[in-house]
């Protein structure tokens, strides 16, 4: 090799090295602070964290608690849960609630979202017998929160239906509207002086689709597109009846707000320039979020959902739609029954029409005639369904605001799972990137009032047992004391809450 060539070679090598370096720098910049929003969250924006009764309380048969559908589902067949686990003890929050409140206090959250176990209050689900020890537990928890200046946000129903009612069909029996709304009234009566944010139902899609559609969750009923839609119909009526009860009997005195919590992924058109893919995206959003929220805001199921389910039902030989119809009276009952909307966002999917949808397919998984897929480059959490797509939250809340007239929205869940990591840097970047996208939407005028990290601590993750962990705090499920230990994300979230800012210094 002559000198010139050697020089050239070195020159090229150098060029390659600096190009490489430049792209590494650029990549890190774009990956980190560069795209993190640097405007502060408003003073009245609420930060909090959440749990649910069944996932953290344990004490499944203690102090008079009645049996619920998940107790039954698990105890009759433990192999339904990964690792044959149960929630009989889980985090033992029934006994350790004071410690939980201390963790919340340390975090500096404005609110704590927890749920009431129906059978702890009403062991058989109905008014026949009130369990005063169960009532006392929630009074104690509320008192402890008050002492520490933490606002309670209370979910009345987070999936744990009383077994006595489940045996009568649960959410597929129209009597549930009565059973549920009387239970809700009792909650307002018992706790309403101390609770200003109520959530009627958590993620009804999971109860209806997983519980009565594919049967993966309790009560394990497989009735896609029939029992599944009866459940949807009754959830909406139950929610609305509870909201009316609050509005009429409690609002003037208690001055609280009542909303519903609906989970939804973002569905991104497979090809943004393809109108069919855009329609598929809209339809799936209406199937997921709209099925519950459209009636509550506008008084009926979304038009697109009604018409496609009817079309498919008739083609399947039914003489009417499998999706029940609201009567005129019911439409008036449900319309306008919200003070805020709760949104649980975790992940996103690409979507397009599915021409191969089986004609006889029924329910949420078929009736939209769409198919979803993921980008293999998306980062994954420990839950099989959790792909990290922070921009999805921005698109979803923007869609929601445009579709429902910019209602007040609280992000009631958003979270990342791992298999047991104390230095949880991926959780930190999950929170940061989702909050950043949320703030961008807020800066565009989307009406977001608060953010909830799911979850305060590792807990019983339904059929995935204790294998996947969403907590800011680690819980030692092997030890009798169920010790809680802060993961790295605790300091991070604490700082975000106190500074209201996602970067070193906000504008
Ligand atoms: C919530 O469920 C629950 O409220 C909570 O109890 C639970 O612990 C927590 O989140 C973590 O799972 O995009 O089509 O693959 C979330 C249930 C299940 C909703 C997966 C979104 C993705 C469907 N999520 N689902 S898809």
UniProtKB/TrEMBL annotation:
Subunit structure: Homodimer.
Keyword terms: Glycoprotein, Glycosidase, Hydrolase
Protein name: Glycoside hydrolase family 1
Secretion signal span: none
SUPFAM superfamilies in UniProt: (Trans)glycosidases (SSF51445)
Origin species: Phyllotreta striolata
One Pfam family in the UniProt entry: Glyco_hydro_1
Molecular function in Gene Ontology: beta-glucosidase activity
Keyword check for Calcium: no
GO BP annotation list: carbohydrate metabolic process
